[in-house]
Design a protein that fits this description.
The complex is a heterodimer. Chain A has helices spanning 12-20, 44-55, 74-78, 83-87, 113-121; strands at residues 5-10, 27-32, 65-70, 95-98, 104-106. By secondary structure, chain A is of the alpha/beta class. In chain A, helix 2 links the parallel strand 2 (27-32) and strand 3 (65-70). In chain B, helix 3 packs across helix 6. In chain B, the strands form 5 sheets. In chain B, strands 1, 2, 3, 4, 5, 6 and 14 form a 7-stranded mixed sheet that branches. A 5-stranded antiparallel sheet of chain B has the order 15-16-19-18-17, with helices on both faces. Chain B has a 3-stranded antiparallel sheet with strand order 10-11-12, with no helix packed on it. Chain B has 12 helices and 19 strands. Classes of the chains: A alpha/beta, B alpha/beta. Chain A binds chain B through residues 101-105, 109, 112, 114-115, 118, 122, and chain B through 100-101, 103-104, 106-107, 110-111, 114-115.
Chain lengths: 123, 471
């Protein structure tokens, strides 16, 4: 039995819904460019970071939630007014964050095992 | 057979204190050396605590400047109406914006330390011997670290007037401020807090035992407090608190004495904030005063101290940062450079900001004699104040020079909007040996407040009216 819940969502509305349904829980979210039919993302950094992040999931705190969120296709992401940029203030993909706090790792920070582990294990 | 010598110590450098100085020092770590930083916040008497980054980030410069800006924006909204903007009346709701920014800085430091492979421990460090540190976390778990060198950078905390009954039970300090009616004694922290609290709509009184901004130029201090009084902060001059009690209503009753008349008075407030000076955090280190040499060394050769913890150093973030960096570079053998503490520019972020570099007029007179100095000065009016119909009576510039020869500048003082921004460039001139001639030969940028420094020509000695006219 895993000690955390993993949720996969696609797009801003699904992300917001997943968060609102889990009030009071500690939520970590990983934002990635959409994957194609072969499971490969248009975002090369996301392809590189994903195995690093997945490799550290075992360090997530007990009872926490891990939301894997595909943000959309490349043109959607490039639009500076997309909901992720406007409302969540994301600046790049991949982004790994602890929801409701300023703690986040952006782009190449997500390649670093010790930073990802630090985010999952420290207060 | 390859013999790898065992490390003599766990670390090459351990920094105790993760504030401005401590972090700057520890982040100079280079790859083959083991650096660690211990940071621990003893909660205030009210239970307030905070994250990595020290006083500046959490309960000092950063939140102070943001609150100051919030208050200035309130004034700007009033000015805006005079410029034709239709803005409805409203009161500010000081939301979590400031705290969110502070927390993002806490996180940013954490990421940087991790990235630079500096070991971070959220533990309270104390000295066992010159190479051994005892670290304890909030839950009481202990560990021991051995290290070649130690840097003490635990900073300072606000003092309480312990001789005033009720002061500690009922009062707060800058560690806790953000929700108060103010009543405190008068160092620069006091004025800055009183200033932004008044600007945010709170009824605020400042109680001053003797003078405001001790150590600063007193003419300038007077202009700062005159402006605050004109803008709604109340001052009780030459008064001292005697005791604080909690009333059944929940309000705090302060008994105070007017030192001029010797009469006692009582007043009630929602909150009382003490800003009576800061003391170095040395208790947990089992030390008292820490006196350092020019290279930040203490009496123990491998133990150094930087920042607010050391006696007689400016209590400023930039000096702690620079001293920390230079110290780290000397310790790893990359440099010989010592920190230069001379001519450090500072700004007091009161509603009318005051910035200065060099000597006060009092200090210049003391060192050189009144006859050997020339003081150029001007009362000016920021252009922006005109349409806004704002009173500029306290907007003033004073440059103190040696009277003879090239008239080297000894001290430069400015009250006005964006005082820090105005003065930073002139402080560079100071480092290069600024003279009155240089100022006069510099062409001003028009229209600005800063250009008035290049146009100074009236001396105090002449007795002429120093109000800028024209244009």
């Amino acid at each position: 039995m895993t000690k955390y819940e993993e949720v996969a969502v696609h797009g801003y509305d699904e992300f917001s819904k997943a968060v609102s349904e889990r009030k009071g829980k500690e939520i970590f979210a990983y934002f990635s460019g959409d994957k194609d039919g072969q499971g490969k993302s248009w975002c090369p950094d996301c392809v590189k970071a994903e195995p690093v992040v997945r490799g550290e999931l075992s360090h997530l705190p007990e009872g926490s939630v891990f939301i894997y969120c595909q943000v959309g296709d490349r043109p959607y992401w490039k639009d500076p007014n997309n909901e992720f940029k406007k409302t969540l203030k994301l600046t790049g993909v991949p982004t790994l964050l602890r929801y409701g706090t300023p703690q986040k790792l952006v782009e190449d920070e997500c390649f670093k095992v010790d930073l990802v582990r630090m985010m999952f294990t420290e207060d | 057979v390859i013999l790898i010598p065992a490390r003599k110590f766990d670390y090459d450098l351990v920094v105790i204190g993760g504030g401005s100085g401590g972090l700057a020092c520890s982040k100079e770590g280079i790859c083959h050396l083991y650096f660690a930083v211990l940071d621990y916040v003893e909660p205030s008497l009210k239970g307030t605590k905070w994250g990595l980054g020290g006083t500046c980030v959490n309960v000092g410069c950063i939140p102070k400047k943001l609150m100051h800006q919030a208050a200035l924006l309130g004034t700007a909204v009033k000015d805006a109406r005079k410029y034709g903007w239709q803005i409805p009346e409203s009161l500010p709701t000081m939301a979590d914006a400031v705290q969110n920014h502070v927390r993002s800085i806490n996180w940013g430091h954490r990421v940087q330390l991790q990235d630079k492979k500096v070991k971070y421990l959220n533990m309270n460090g104390s000295l066992v011997d010159k190479h051994t540190i005892r670290a304890v976390n909030a839950k009481g778990k202990e560990m021991t670290l051995t290290t070649k060198n130690i840097v003490l950078a635990t900073g300072g905390r606000p003092k309480y007037p312990t001789h005033v009954p009720g002061a500690m039970e009922f009062g707060i300090t800058s560690d806790d401020v953000f929700f108060v009616f103010l009543h405190c004694v008068c160092e620069d922290v006091a004025l800055e807090c009183a200033g932004f609290l008044t600007g945010l709509g709170l009824d605020t009184t400042v109680m001053v035992r003797s003078i405001a901004l001790r150590g600063f130029d007193q003419q300038m201090a007077g202009l700062v407090t005159d402006y605050m009084e004109a803008y709604g902060t109340k001052f009780s001059w030459r008064c001292a608190p005697k005791s604080v009690e909690k009333l059944p209503s929940g309000l705090l009753q302060v008994t105070w004495m007017d030192l001029k008349t010797k009469e006692e008075h009582k007043d009630s407030f929602n909150s009382v904030l003490w800003a009576v000076g800061r003391a170095p955090e040395t208790k947990t280190l089992n030390l008292e005063k820490i006196i350092v040499a020019a290279d930040e060394a203490t009496s123990v050769p491998n133990i150094f101290a930087i920042g607010d913890i050391s006696e007689g150093r400016p209590e400023l973030t930039p000096t702690a940062i620079k001293a920390g960096k230079l110290l780290a570079r000397r310790l790893v053998g990359h440099s010989d450079e010592l920190m230069n503490y001379e001519n450090v520019a500072t700004t007091v972020f009161t509603p009318l900001e005051y910035s200065c570099v060099g000597l006060s007029e009092e200090e210049a007179e003391k060192r050189h004699g009144k006859d050997q100095i020339e003081v150029y000065h001007a009362f000016y009016k920021p252009l922006e104040f005109t349409v806004a119909e704002r009173d500029a009576t306290q907007c003033y510039i004073k440059v103190i020079c040696l009277r003879e020869g090239e008239q080297r500048v000894l001290g430069l003082h400015f009250t006005g909007p964006n005082a820090g921004e105005v003065t930073q460039g002139f402080s560079l001139g100071f480092q290069c040996g600024l003279t009155y001639g240089h100022l006069r030969n510099t062409v001003g940028i028009h229209p600005t407040c800063a250009e008035e420094l290049t146009k100074l020509n009236i001396t105090k000695r002449s007795g002429l009216d120093a109000t800028v006219t024209g244009c």
